[in-house]
Design goal:
about 1100 residues, alpha/beta, Isoleucyl-tRNA Synthetase, Domain 1, Rossmann fold, Isoleucyl-tRNA Synthetase, domain 2, six-stranded mixed sheet, 36 helices, disordered N terminus, aminoacyl-trna synthetase
Amino acid sequence: MKQSSLFINSHRCQIRGLSSFALLNHHHMINHSVWFLCTSPFPSIISSREFSSTLSPNVEERDKRFSHTILLPKTPFKTKISVEEEINLQKICTEYAYQSQKEQRLNQPNIKTFTLHDGPPYANGNLHAGHALNKILKDVTNRYKIQTGHLVQFIPGWDCHGLPIEIKVLQELKKKKKMEVSGNSDPSIRKLAKDFAEQAIQSQMKDFKRWGIMGDWDNPYKTMNPKFEAQQLRIFLDMLKKKYIYRGKKPVFWSPSSGTALAESELEYPDVHISKSCYILFPIENNTGAEVEKYGELFAVVWTTTPWTLMSNEAISYNNDIEYSIIYDQDKHRRLIIASDLLKTVCEKTGIKNYVLLEAKKGQDLFVNNGSSVSPIHTTTTTNATTSATTTIPFSTRISSYQNPLTLKLKKTLLPFLHGSHVTTEVGTGLVHTAPNHGMEDFHVVRENNIPIGPCFVDEQGRYNSETPLEELRGLPVLEQGNLRVIQIFEEELSKYLLFREDYSHRYPYDWRTKKPILIRMTEQWFAELKDLKHRAKEFIDETIEMIPNTGRNRLKAFIESRDEWCISRQRTWGVPIPVFYRRRNSSPEEEYLATSESIGYVIGLIEQHGTDYWFEKSEDELLAPPYRNQGWKKGTDTLDVWFDSGTTWFSVMKASGIPLPVDVYLEGSDQHRGWFQSSLLTSLAYQGVPPYKKIVTHGFITDENGKKMSKSLGNVIEPENLVSKYGVDVLRFWVCFSDFTVDVSIGQSVFEKLSTNLKKIRNTAKFMLGVLADYSPPPPPPPPLTLPPQKITIQPNGPHDGETQQQHCYSNLSEADLYIIARVKQFCDQVTESYEQFSYYKVTQHIMTFTYELSSFYLDLIKDRLYCSSEEVRRPCQRVVQYILDCYTKAISPILCHTAEDIYQCMTYKKHKSLCEEGWFISPEEFFSEISLPNVEQTVEKWNLIIELRQEIYKVIERARMDKAFRTSNEVMVHIERVDCEKLKEAITPLLKPCSTNDPVSTQLDEIMMVSQVNWLNEATCECLYSHSYNTSIDGSQVILSISKASHHKCPRCWRYTSTVENETCQRCENVLNTSLKAPIM
């Protein structure tokens, strides 16, 4: 008996006072977090058994004469399961659940399908909390769809190629062979990289399975599989044929630390980067005219944060619409040209104090757009200033050319001024140093003016190359020593042209893999043309593709809008080769390439059969299609961008597996707007003209409990493996769905402690329901109708039903409280379903926790007396309601807490299938209670809100009395409702004034609901009232007056209720039950 008492207490809701308020306001509470529920400050409302447990342990001891007649709960279900038990459950709820639904539904006609395409994690290193967030969200989505009858095919995958793996392999090779890391072409790199990726895949797969992620783990996709690589190259060939892909020489993002070109999506921009900025004076060509003698030389003032690019300066850009001022610096006897809007700022910063404004003109009036007038641009002229090779340019004449001070001592070259719409007055001087080898906008300005572009002086390692005119710069890294040396030259040798220098803090692009700064460098690459594709992409984003959250729409559009081209070639070894051959003819500096359908198609066939290693290991004649052999072609060494790998998975995986396109959902982190979402959309539009997905769902990133980014250096990294070992998998899954995942999600020990407590509450609630159903068998289905369908029965609680069999009556004899909880379950199911459909999983958990507290503190507490002490005809209808509650409750938690839900299902004595996943989704109350005409849900809940409000007010008075030690338990209390002005409350209470059952003629349903000895409804009190109270109803503000007194009856030694007319004797209900020879169920 002591053990049973502990079991009962373990189910007690720990939040006193929540029951009535929660039921009254459950539809308002959804917008609050569960932490709100856990710290509710509402007045303490304690049930009769809570009184006894807090005041006197002896009260819990039932009379031993009747202990064997009490039907206490019994179930093998545990409050917490072991790791071994959890793993055993996974075999059913994950492995069996996925395979069984696939086998049963795959060939069913008209079956609903759902496909969530798995964005491939990188096969590198151990999994972290971000992986858990991503994969568990996908799994919750898939489980919900399986539960609702969809065929789900989830093919997990991995991104296997790319720089991080190659760098790690190269570092190992460097240790063993003392080899250079960047640019290494050792053939063993690819084998080592493949082995490294495969080891990472096996390790990560093990963790994914441990988290309960269901999927086709026997056949995952890997971007290094030959069939995948071949499919990827088919997309490349298709885009090449449609002229979306071309080869060109352009400035591209180049990572010296990686030794390869990068795409915009592979960059990150740290908030703080310090550049060495300089204000440089570029001399404008003129002779010793009158203006020069009077005002000094004329200079264009240019600001740059990349002094190392001055070696490649080929123009100065201005804007036709900007006004420029020509000032006379009296202290230095020189003239300077600066944008008028920036004049004050520049002069203050550079220390120019005494100056005179000579003239101000718009750019179009001051400069000559000298795209073709200076000829030739790169021709050396005589250094004799008095010759006719140069002309005087007084400040009142339009200016057309200047000289680069850094190369003056080498040659005298006139360079042009060019109009550029990218020039603004936000920062700088309004004049922009233009180096087309090192800037995209610079390149376009020079190209638009048909000016030949000079050579690039920076090599693959980011060093000045052998063609650099200044020998002292050759071999220096341009971002480090090279940059400092250029500044030093200006300070020591060209100080006349250095106006000012300072450190400048700003955002600067970094290689997101090596975390080192990149540069822009002219080089020949393969590009995907995006100008046409991006306009179509934006239309689909605006009109067709669903976004959760909707803010992702503008984010994806912005990334696509910012790109006119996509550099898809990389100068690395571990990747899919671009199957193109090259050669030079007749000593021509221009290289021609072979990229026909026949030549590429032939290589694709070889790769599909042998893998991409074949390209790197075999000779050209073995790789070339027969018509092209022995013609001097050499295979290329470039590989495809890994975003092209993953960006074609919709084709290489989904379409290749026979899964219809577009798939339903892509679900990834918000960083994939610039990555996978974008590359997949663009390749799909190029190939098939439509997006590869219908909906994009994005989640935020992981932070610690203080909102800080997870970092090993900060010591705030929490490994999922440790959390699973301590709390179990379901707590990890609970955490994923507990917060709004569309923003950043915090993780920490305190969060998991609270979630662990919440999971225990869920398990205890389920444990009680399983326990009271131990002796329960569901009623048999009604027989099929012969001629007419069976007549619906309108419930008269606890009353007879003419024409109904005794068994049907036994299962259908529902109380008003039963009908209310059925209505609440219907509401709960609708709320949970809607939240799952909207991907609002945090709302699902809120609904679950709110309903858990409602059940534990109200209905399940209410029915304990019925289930423990009443007759069979009273217990069975109640058990049937509990069965329905448990069925819906278990299904509601199953997508998130899959192990807990499966554990509950396996402990159901009446289960029909091997796994819960085969049960389907919620059964409507109309279907479950098919022989009953249930009342309207909304009306029932509205009515019961008034009843619960009354209960809340009654318990306020009881609590006051308890604090004064007037009563020990609520069962000792008699309640007198003296006045009720609210007609709706009267209507709601009237059905509750009937007896609880034919075996219990003394107690009414109202007594049971209020959990007191007796409620005297609108009758004159027959005994002394100890406490009085009044309140105004929430529905219309009308008044209710009530009071409480001591119970007029004695405590029943069997059920504890104060309904016995003789002290120490059983009450009439218990007497009737005992007389029917009630036997304890066989457990």
